[in-house]
Design a protein that fits this description.
- The structure holds three protein chains of three kinds.
- Chain A is α/β, with parallel strands linked by helices.
- Helix content of chain A is 33%, strand content 21%.
- Chain A has one domain: 3-Layer(aba) Sandwich (Peroxisomal Thiolase, Chain A, domain 1).
- Chain A has a nine-stranded mixed β-sheet with strand order 5-4-6-7-1-8-11-10-9, with helices on both faces. A three-stranded mixed β-sheet of chain A has the order 3-2-12.
- Chain A is globular and about 55 Å long.
- Chain B is mainly beta.
- Chain B is built from three helices and eight strands.
- In chain B, strands 6-5-4-7-8 form a five-stranded antiparallel β-sheet. Chain B has a three-stranded antiparallel β-sheet with strand order 2-1-3.
- Chain B is globular.
- Classes of the chains: A alpha/beta, B mainly beta, C alpha/beta.
Chain lengths: 338, 140, 388
């Protein structure tokens, strides 16, 4: 029996800051291809955003939360290093305490990790139903150019074996050891990146090409058979770098390339990109998703669109609902002025 | 700090996260937040749980500036300016106070439709307290 | 039931006094009360003390009434702390009156004391914030200013009350308080200043809000049968009433009425065999300007919704037909929470005997006065009617 997505939804917080604000403050904006990015409100965080998109995704099926038997949450910016994160979300959404819930956190690959974890839950029993919620708002020091692309956003997916919008055809993973790329040691508030560029690019390409090519081989497909390709977006240029090496074109990237408007969504990057691709996709389209998280790992998933049904909470509507803030307000909201 | 203890806060999670109210079995009115004895008939402690929709209308409101903000909301006011707080008449009948988020304070009006959403309320002793705030209901 | 009279009343200065704690403040009020008893009295006659207090000065959480009673030389009496937030003093007076009325004791002290300025700003806000409904009202991001602002906003919406009406209360009370040597703020303000104050909780600005402060007061309550031993001009308790209400404003039937005030004053009028029209002077609980407007309505001085018009027409000025807060009110005097209610009794004691300090704010010929003390946003209310 086919398993896949029967509902999905995105949420982008409405506050936005333009690259020009950064340029005024720092002289330049170090986020290739990003024109503006989203900012979490003062009283929001990744858990409130996850609750919001999970409810939206369930409503878009519609499915009552009581039917959910598995819940997977992904974020690199959770408010606690130790404390069950899913608890806050499932209680707010109404998912029963008997559901198997998992927290996925340690890199920006967590989003697809959560998706695969939920898929495996689905495969265990045909009556299982799962929700995957990816919500992120990565942070780094204001002094660090690493901070420039960091945005905020969330997307959730309902997994089922009926009323599908898109089937998951296959998934593949690549994990490895790459120390000293983007990392945050215990007790440290801020992300670090040692900026050893060629080395880091090596990790990115090694892992994404492994997982992506494994799919192509598994399904005996060529890159051009995919209508949409969603690749991890730490900025708006990295996807092109990976795509070029795999034989995908920039045209295939268009629908999922949200980072130019929202920045780096961390563990929610591929999730929101996938939601955008689903919004644009037609019946029969194939979608490739390739994530990447430092340290390092990559997951690839292949999906086939089997319905014209769309979410009621489209990514474009989220992008269009915005309010610009200046850099000072940005710093205040992020608690960066000490 | 408001000094609401962790267990005290935790006891209100059904209301704060899920809008669980009590429908009086005797008179049928909905109490929210909960009371020991029904507020409307003063005669019964027999209730059935009812999950409220979270929809309502603004009955009255205030715009809180720095001087009017309790310490646990001082940083929020400093970062984001004046914030609105309203008494909202919920669709099921009871009225309850709550902050309005995601709204331009100038646009808050009596009669404005709102709905609840989970938000960070404040943090005390390193523990984040989540709960409902109201956001404008764009006719949905 | 015995009849009850006040034969002495005293009050400390209200203000910010780093050199005085609750003991010292209470002593100041007590000595002032002793001096006011025309023929003196023997301290041994006081058998009870009811002391209104919210925060115990920040340290003496339990038994603060024993502490201040023995400090003023009353170590072995029936003493208890009365707490109903800002109505503590008003309820302390009622408790003392009921004690003597019942015949249990012949003489009781009703007092109040508060020390607000020793503690940090954060702690002050905590004390005040938890006298409303903490769980919902406080955690929605309001202090009392916010709660009264919710009432003001709705009052303006339902009745067309204007921003200027709120400021009229502030201007009047500052004008009166400028003539009160014991008030914290003895300075008049203009209408323009009152209108343009920095916003605290819109629509309320800085001049719509009273200031909590330090202070103490004490009144001597005796069996009316023995009153004339102490003075030719005792002030009798004609009636009193107390009533509570839902703590959270959202739980109340009407957002623009304090049921506690309505019910308490109805009881007081009934006990006194009087009506609102009989009241010749009143000290009401103007913690915020809107609160004074509500008091006009809920005490029956004017119809619901007409308070704006009532103050605009000048009825509540000294010299008007219903002078309210000739003392300057909480607005100008300051609000030492536990003391405010008995401080109102101190003022009315002097008004009714013609002994007000600075005769410019004497309500001429007043023989029947009403004092009105509200806890928080109306959770508790005590009303007492005094007469010559």
């Amino acid at each position: 029996m086919a398993i896949g997505i029967s509902g999905y939804a995105a949420y982008i917080p409405k506050l936005r800051i333009k690259k020009e604000e950064y340029a005024k403050a720092w002289g330049s904006f170090a986020a290739a291809g990003v024109a503006e990015k989203s900012v979490m409100g003062f009283d929001e965080d990744v858990l409130t955003s996850a609750a919001k998109v999970s409810k939206r995704a369930l409503e878009s099926v519609p499915m009552p939360p009581e039917k959910v038997s598995g819940f997977a949450l992904a974020s690199t910016a959770a408010p606690y290093v130790e404390k069950l994160l899913s608890g806050t979300v499932i209680v707010s959404v109404g998912i029963p305490g008997t559901a198997f819930c998992t927290d996925h956190t340690s890199s920006t690959r967590a989003g697809t990790e959560a998706m695969i974890s939920a898929l495996e839950h689905m495969m265990a029993n045909s009556s299982n139903r799962a929700v995957v919620a990816c919500a992120d708002a990565p942070t780094a020091s204001m002094w660090d150019s690493l901070e420039h692309p960091m945005g905020a956003g969330a997307a959730a997916f309902v997994l089922s074996n009926e009323d599908l919008i898109a089937e998951v055809e296959a998934y593949a993973c690549s994990a490895s050891e790459y120390l000293g790329e983007r990392f945050k040691p215990k007790g440290d508030e801020m992300l670090h990146d040692l900026n050893v560029k060629k080395y880091e690019e090596g990790s990115l390409l090694t892992n994404t090409l492994k997982s992506g090519n494994a799919i192509l081989k598994m399904l005996n497909r060529k890159p051009e058979e995919y209508q949409h390709v969603v690749i991890q977006q730490p900025d708006a240029r990295v996807p092109s770098t990976v795509a070029a090496r795999m034989g995908f074109t920039d045209v295939q990237l268009v629908a999922g390339l949200v980072s130019k408007s929202v920045g780096d969504l961390g563990a929610a990057s591929t999730a929101v990109g996938l939601a955008a691709a689903l919004d644009a996709a037609k019946m029969g389209d194939k979608i490739m998703v390739i994530s990447y998280g430092s340290g390092a790992a990559s997951d690839a998933l292949s999906l086939k669109v089997v319905s014209d049904r769309k979410s009621a909470f489209k990514v474009q509507a989220e992008l269009d609902r915005k309010e610009y803030i200046d850099y000072i307000k940005y710093l205040k909201i992020k608690g960066a002025i000490v | 700090m408001a000094h609401v203890s962790v267990p005290m806060y935790w006891r209100t999670i059904p209301q704060r996260y899920k809008m669980i109210g009590q429908k009086c079995k005797k008179c049928g009115h909905v109490n929210f937040p909960p009371k020991g004895v029904c507020k409307y008939c003063s005669a019964s402690s027999d209730f059935e749980e009812l999950k409220l929709s979270g929809l309502g209308k603004v009955h009255t409101f205030v715009l809180i500036s720095a001087g009017g903000a309790p310490p646990e909301f001082a940083d929020q006011e400093k970062a984001g300016g004046q914030y609105p707080v309203a008494i909202v008449e919920l669709a099921e009948g009871p009225k309850v106070i709550g902050q309005i988020a995601d709204a331009d304070p100038k646009e808050v009006k009596i009669g404005m439709p709102v709905r609840t959403e989970l938000r960070r309320i404040y943090s005390e002793e390193g523990v984040i307290r989540y709960g409902f705030k109201f956001v404008p209901a764009e006719g949905k | 039931m015995k009849k009850v009279a006040l034969v002495g009343a005293g009050q400390s200065k209200y203000g910010d006094f780093p050199d005085k704690g609750i003991k010292e403040l209470f002593l100041e009020a007590y000595k002032d009360m002793v001096a006011s008893v025309d023929r003196g009295y023997d301290p041994k006659m006081i058998e009870s003390a009811y002391i209104g207090n919210l925060g115990s000065g920040g340290f003496q959480l339990g038994n603060m009434s024993a502490l201040v009673s023995e400090y003023v030389g009353l170590p072995h009496i029936n003493t208890m702390r009365i707490e109903n937030a800002c109505a503590s003093g008003g309820y302390a007076l009622v408790a003392a009156v009921m004690d003597v009325m019942s015949g249990t004791h012949k003489a009781a002290l009703a007092g109040g004391v508060e020390k607000m300025t020793d503690v940090s700003g954060m702690k002050q806000k905590y004390w005040l914030g938890v006298s409303g409904d903490t769980e919902y009202e406080r955690l929605a991001g309001t202090t009392f200013a916010g709660l009264y602002a919710l009432i003001a906003q709705r009052h303006m919406h339902e009745f067309g009350t204007k921003r200027e009406h709120l400021s009229m209360v502030a201007v009047k009370n500052h004008k009166n308080g400028a003539q009160n040597p014991k008030a914290q703020f003895q300075r008049e303000i203009t209408m323009e200043q009152a209108l343009k104050g920095p916003i605290v909780a819109a629509p309320l600005n800085l001049f719509d809000c009273c200031s909590t402060t330090d202070g103490a007061s004490a009144v001597l309550v005796v069996d009316a049968d023995i009153a004339k031993q102490f003075t030719d001009t005792p002030v009798y308790v004609a009636g009193f009433g107390t009533a509570s209400d839902y703590l959270a404003i959202h739980d109340r039937v009407s957002t623009v009425t304090l049921e506690g005030t309505k019910k308490a004053s109805a009881q007081a009028y009934a006990m006194a065999g009087m009506a609102a029209k009989d009241i010749q002077a009143a000290e009401v609980h103007d913690c915020f300007t809107i609160a004074e407007l509500l008091a006009y309505e809920d005490l029956g001085f004017c119809e619901k919704g007409k308070a704006g018009q009532f103050i605009e027409e000048g009825h509540t000025q000294i010299g008007g037909d219903k002078p309210v807060n000739a003392s300057g009110g909480l607005k100008s005097k300051g609000h030492p929470i536990g003391s405010t209610g008995t401080g109102q009794a101190y003022e009315m004691f002097n008004q009714l005997r013609g002994t007000v300090q600075k005769p410019t704010r004497q309500v001429k010929g007043a023989e029947i006065g009403l004092i009105h003390n509200v806890g928080g946003s109306g959770g508790t209310v005590a009303v007492t009617i005094l007469r010559r």
